[in-house]
Amino acid sequence: MKMLVMEDEFVSRSVLMEILAPYGTIESAENGREALEKFQKALQSSERFDIVFLDIMVPEMNGQDVLKNMREMEQQYGVFALSGTKVVMTTALGDFNNVKTAFKHQCEAYLIKPLDREKVVSALQGLGIV
């Protein structure tokens, strides 16, 4: 499985990548711009990410905007709805507006920090990925 983790905080990024390591290859991004560049490059090369983990509060472009842009990019490349990359929001923000916005922009799961192995693996299982 090919994964992308967008997380600006080193410890959180490291923990998530360690949890995901047994399931495939992982690329990371520290900000929204970098995540979108990697996502677009993967779309162009036909080696799409299977799953993307997005923090909301990151520099340059927040996770909500990254998700919206990712879905727009997928449409431009002829990737629609159920065939798109799975997206899991990973954030400290658990308020209704952020959750609603994320699902409006078609995330598949929403995990509230702190993250642990059980939460992440449960989300992967719920998405039918593992």
Entry keywords:
130 residues; alpha/beta; Rossmann fold; 5-stranded parallel beta sheet
Fold and architecture overview:
This protein has 130 residues and is α/β, with parallel strands linked by helices. It has a single domain (2-126), classed as Response regulator (Rossmann fold). The chain contains five helices and five strands, in the order βαβαβαβαβα. The protein has helices at 10-20, 32-44, 63-76, 96-104, 117-126, and strands spanning 2-6, 25-29, 51-54, 86-91, 109-112. α2 packs parallel to α3. It is globular, with a radius of gyration of 13 Å. The relative contact order is 0.18.
Give a quick rundown of the structure.
The protein has helices spanning 10-20, 32-44, 63-76, 96-104, 117-126, and strands at 2-6, 25-29, 51-54, 86-91, 109-112.
SSE layout and pairing:
Elements (H helix, E strand, L loop, with lengths): L1 E5 L3 H11 L4 E5 L2 H13 L6 E4 L8 H14 L9 E6 L4 H9 L4 E4 L4 H10 L4
Parallel strand pairs: 1-2, 1-3, 3-4, 4-5
Helix pairs in contact: 2-3
Alpha-beta content class? alpha/beta
Secondary-structure arrangement, i.e. CATH architecture: 3-Layer(aba) Sandwich
What is the CATH T-level topology? Answer: Rossmann fold
**Helix percent band:** 40-55%
Question: How would a crystallographer describe the biggest sheet?
Answer: 5 strands, parallel
What count of structural domains?
A: 1
Tally of helical segments: 5
Strand sequence of the main sheet, in spatial order? Answer: 2-1-3-4-5
Q: Compute the number of strand runs.
A: 5
> What separation lies between the terminal Cα atoms?
10 Å
CATH evolutionary superfamily: Response regulator
Oligomeric grouping of the chains: single chain
* CATH class categorisation: Alpha Beta
- Helix and strand element order: EHEHEHEHEH
Percentage of residues in strands: 15-25%
- Uncertain ranges: none
If you average the pLDDT, what whole number results?
96
User: Could you tell me the radius of gyration in angstroms?
Assistant: 13 Å
Tell me, briefly, the overall form: globular
